[in-house]
Design a protein that fits this description.
75% helix; globular; mainly alpha; 511 residues
């Protein structure tokens, strides 16, 4: 044990030396700025940024390459929160959950507060995720091996149960939207049965409805249509935007520290499960927060600052979590870490148990990079928050066409396919109709995200058990998830019972 501690201390000291030199720190700051930019532009995201950076790392020393790419990976989610708040446009898919309360805050003239809270929550979540990475690496193998198709299926069901209780009084509309989201998720080639479903002869739908173009249309363009119809600007209160202090948002994170801790924990846990991703983590964190706060002072979806803190803390925490299976077993926990894994292999670093023993200093270089990049990204966003808040005062007739064009370019740039532009426009119309008729887009989005995971994991579980449902009852983690699902569905009934009981006691006392 003493030898292990001394080895870790020696590796940490070696890694720290890289951060005392000018050139490596320049790479880290450059990577952070690139991550912020690619995160803020809809349709690009961290995967694109890392893919474009790989050629630039040819000839670099290993620590320099890791600091450049690690800085970019850590900053993407923070950049995506800016466009999510100011324009209702998620820069990357996980930032879609931030739009639910971030954009209403911007509409109220509180964009500075929302950006301050998002940036601070991202930094704190990132730090917690990195700390979790350090703590969990020694036992990572046991944790990762606990999850197989039955657990993946039940984890998705748990997220869907959270949908049912997060819509409040709009339960029926929420369920209808969720069903429609499932229908959209099942479009395209089914890798289980080998058939093509619901494409109606459109070849572009063979790969299914792609998430990022759909989200761009559902949130960004639909909101611009609504803004153009109403006229004016995003914020109707110019004075409040001018005097809004970013520090208010920073204070809100520490006032609501439990929200930040729970969101970070969810992000770290979901990030460590390969293939689930940050989108699920952000939405699950948001839904959990809605359940934890049954009587909020401000309704969720109407500008509750905790609705920004919860998903943003999960977004950055998932980076540390997703590196657990990547470093320990070479299993990427997300699309970004898959590209990052390729870059490591390019530089002669083979992820897996040997990496933890033979290149321990490289692991700590990555850990310190993620930590410092989170702080640098937050400081940059906080410094620019006030100027960016003025974007909410731009007239709709200027802002709407500009954002729409940028959003469509982002949808096209994702894979260079015109079909993605069509998908974005179709979902823009759907999103606008949902706004007009007050249908929650959150339930639709979560169902769209979880649909493929739910179906694939269920059929895999059935294949393993020869069609027996008993596989869900014979595994400890599965049983825990089943209990959590049941408890989640019973929460509204329990709250209703308690309210009626208190009302009855109050009426009895009055007599």
């Amino acid at each position: 044990m003493l030898d292990s501690i001394l080895s870790m201390a020696n590796a940490l000291g070696t890694a720290s030396l890289h951060f005392l030199a000018f050139k490596p720190m320049l790479y880290l700051v450059a990577g952070t700025c690139i991550g912020l930019l690619f995160g803020a532009i809809p349709g690009l995201g961290g995967t694109t940024a890392l893919a474009l950076l790989i050629p630039l790392t040819y000839g670099m020393d290993k620590p320099d390459a890791i600091m450049l790419m690690g800085g970019s990976m850590a900053a993407t989610s923070t950049g995506g929160s800016v466009s999510a708040i100011l324009l209702n446009t998620p820069g990357i898919a996980p930032n879609a959950a931030t739009t639910f309360d971030g954009f209403p805050l911007a509409s109220q003239g509180r964009a500075g507060e929302a950006i301050g809270a998002a940036a601070t929550a991202s930094a704190m979540g990132g730090l917690i995720g990195v700390i979790s990475l350090l703590v969990v690496i020694p036992i990572a193998k046991e944790i990762v091996l606990l999850f197989s198709p039955p657990e993946f299926f039940l984890l998705a069901v748990f997220g869907l149960c959270a949908i049912a209780v997060s819509t409040g009084t709009r339960l029926l509309q929420g369920l209808i939207a969720a069903i429609f989201g499932f229908i959209c998720a099942f479009v395209g080639f089914d890798y289980v049965s080998g058939i093509v479903r619901y494409t109606y002869g459109v070849d572009a739908l063979w790969d299914g409805i792609k998430l990022v173009p759909a989200l761009i249309g559902l949130f960004a363009i639909s909101q611009m249509i609504d803004l153009a119809v109403k006229g004016g600007s995003i914020s109707d209160d110019a004075l409040q935007v001018k005097i809004q202090k970013v520090t208010d948002g920073i204070r809100q994170v520490f006032r609501n520290w439990s929200t930040m801790l729970v969101g970070s924990g969810i992000g770290t846990f979901i990030g460590a499960v390969p293939g689930v991703g940050g989108t699920v983590a952000a939405f699950l964190s948001y839904s959990t927060q809605v359940q934890r706060d049954p009587n909020p002072d401000v309704p969720y979806g109407k500008g509750n600052i905790r609705g920004v803190i919860a998903p943003e803390s999960a977004n950055n925490a998932k980076d540390g979590g997703s590196l657990i299976p990547t470093l320990a077993f070479g299993i990427p926990g997300s699309a970004e870490t898959a590209v990052f894994l390729g870059a490591m292999v390019l530089h002669g670093l083979e992820p897996g148990p040997r990496l933890l023993f033979e290149h321990e200093d490289v692991v700590f270089t990555l850990v310190l990079t993620l930590t410092i990049a989170c702080v640098v990204a937050t400081l940059i966003v906080l410094a620019l928050a006030k100027p960016m808040a003025y974007l909410t005062l731009v007239d709709a007739h200027i802002l709407a066409p500009t954002v729409t064009v940028v959003a469509l370019v982002g949808a096209y740039a994702l894979q260079g396919e015109f079909g993605d532009v069509v998908i974005a426009m179709v979902f823009a119309v759907i999103g606008y109709l949902m706004i007009r008729f007050d249908y929650p887009r959150i339930t639709f989005t979560i169902a769209l995200v979880l649909g493929e995971i739910t179906e694939r994991s269920f059929f895999q579980a059935m294949g393993i058990s020869d069609g027996s449902l008993g596989i869900f009852l014979t595994r400890t983690v599965s049983l825990i998830l089943i209990v959590l699902c049941i408890a989640t569905l019973l929460i509204p009934s329990f709250r209703s019972f308690m309210r009626k009981r208190k009302a009855a006691e109050a009426a009895g006392g009055a007599r």
